[in-house]
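In response to a reviewer's request, we include the raw inputs and outputs for one of the modeled complexes. The two entities were modeled together in a single run.
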Amino acid sequence: MAADRCPLCEIVAGRQPKEIVYADASVVAFLCEPPATEGHLLVVPRAHRRDIWSIPRNEATAAMSAAHLLAGVIREALGATGVNLRQNNGGRAGQDVFHFHLHVVPRYEDDTVLPGCVWGEPPWVAPPDGAEARRRAADAIRAGVAAGTA
Amino acid sequence: MAADRCPLCEIVAGRQPKEIVYADASVVAFLCEPPATEGHLLVVPRAHRRDIWSIPRNEATAAMSAAHLLAGVIREALGATGVNLRQNNGGRAGQDVFHFHLHVVPRYEDDTVLPGCVWGEPPWVAPPDGAEARRRAADAIRAGVAAGTA
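The model returned the following structure tokens for the whole complex.
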């Protein structure tokens, strides 16, 4: 897929509105829609990189650095008791959007995601979503990032 | 769990033999036993860090740096067509060993891991394993690391 047709490039460029919770020189993080759980984030490089084989190492580590920060924030801001990091490369591995993305999935005692699975596998019940719910989660995360909660 | 009873600390210290394929000042990578797929690796910090909330950021990024290198190597050395990175924090998230570990799971066209799942979820058929199979996979990965395949 050309970068100018890539949905994640559209988000990075600000042409597709999302709840952005973190951004630095290398990566942007925003709420995944639909989410696996409340506060489910994607961390993506600003540049169009297909997967772990095409992303430069410094951008991959920048994504992990952001995930590390955000994992701390979502525990404090949203009350998550667990976090899954997931990063899929290649169709066989379940990659569905071909711009490198690192999932940061908050886990809650009452969520319905299987322990060993990512979102979308049954039994899975979508959490409350919608613009207002996303705004509330994003505001809490942004406040945690600003406060240096992690 | 105290660090002196941690199974991953035992591996880092060399008291529990594993097929180590990569090591640097911060992290060690070795074959997971049992594997989800041939060449399934764990990248762990040398220091005892429970999870993403207790590992320093520079060690988390060192783990991603190693995974980035190894993802390239396993594609070249083992013929993987996909790779899943998985890192679980907290019992609710499926963490079972409480020393930070980043799974690097090669994916093959004929593997039996569900696209959205990690190993252990049905339907899952263990790949060929045993000391000889592990040695062959590890030798191929070590040769790739040494050759700078990635």
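As requested, we also summarize the result in words. The mean pLDDT of chain A is 90. The radius of gyration of chain A is 15 Å.
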